[in-house]
Specification:
There is one protein chain. The protein is of the alpha/beta class and 275 residues long. It has twelve helices and ten strands. α5 crosses α7, α5 packs across α11 and α9 crosses α10. The structure holds D-glutamic acid. The site of D-glutamic acid has 17 residues, from α4. D-glutamic acid binds next to α4.
Length: 275
């Protein structure tokens, strides 16, 4: 296979559901000529409440599907899968590169607020593994980190209840529970694919001085650097293609996914696959 053909292979992006479309959107903005192949494991969402063994198995199966389809780089757009399985997925994909979302998110927070206090909102599994804490502490030993599992926020975003009284009260309760003992966050890390949709009410509750960190754009920048430095960028005058795979519920994927993507999707755009 020539280099050009290999460079035309899509970037594979996988998430437990549609939340990773926020990462796809950022990659599309950064690298419009790249072909993108997205897989949402909607049949098994949420990953965040499952055991590490199950999450690792699901992530390996999703990666195998994308490998079989043919990709040149894998983005693990799911924070939970990045927290649990990144090293195993790197072995599985070797020698092709694998990029997770935890490290780029931690890096963005630390460079914006050196020595700062970071509140990480994430799923139960991501919090239990201390994934962001470890990533932040390895980058900035002066940082203070508090992590809070916010499972209901996944459901709110999936339901499209991203503002109004119910969203505000639930978010306030999580943030209040995570605050106290003199802990005041300088940054709130949106450590779950779904939380960027709730940015509005989170910012209102947290006040203007608190920086909200979303790993989508930093992850997209890392994808760009990785392809550029390895000579794997696609060269074309035309925009890249977009393909969407899901393991269940094409209609729901299209409806909810359109909100995450910020553009309408039809169920006809979604191909169902069995892992
Ligand atoms: N994609 C997951 C994450 O970013 C959130 C949804 C889930 O629990 O599967 O952690």
């Amino acid at each position: 296979m020539s280099d050009t053909k290999e460079n035309d292979l899509p970037i594979g992006i996988f998430d437990s559901g549609v939340g990773g479309l926020t990462v796809l959107k950022a990659i599309r903005a950064e690298l419009p000529r790249e072909n993108l192949l997205y897989l949402g494991d909607t049949a098994r969402l949420p990953y965040g409440t499952k055991s590490p063994a199950s999450i690792a198995r699901y992530a390996a199966q999703a990666t195998a599907e994308l490998q079989e389809q043919g990709i040149k780089l894998l983005v693990v757009a799911c924070n939970t899968a990045s927290a649990v399985a990144l090293n195993a997925l790197r072995e599985q994909m070797s020698p092709l590169p694998v990029i997770g979302v935890v490290e780029p998110g931690a890096r963005a927070a630390v460079s914006a607020r050196p020595g700062g206090s970071h509140l990480v909102l994430a799923t139960e599994a991501t919090v239990q593994l201390g994934a962001y804490r470890k990533a932040i502490e390895s980058l900035d030993s002066a940082a203070t980190v508090r992590e809070k599992a916010c499972e209901l926020l996944v459901a709110l975003a999936e339901e499209g209840w991203t503002d109004g009284d119910i969203a505000t009260r639930i978010i306030r309760r999580y943030i209040d529970e995570a605050s106290g003992d003199d802990f005041r966050a300088d940054s709130i890390i949106l450590g779950c694919t779904h939380f960027p949709l709730l940015k509005g009410p989170i910012q209102v509750i947290a006040s203007d001085e608190v920086l909200l960190v979303d790993s989508a754009s930093t992850t997209a920048a890392v994808v760009g650097e990785t392809l550029r430095s390895s000579g794997r960028l696609r060269e074309s005058d035309r925009a890249g293609s977009l393909r969407f795979l899901a393991t269940d519920g094409a209609t729901r994927f299209a409806r909810v996914g359109g909100q995450f993507l910020g553009q309408p999707l039809s169920y006809k755009d979604i191909e169902l696959v069995d892992l």
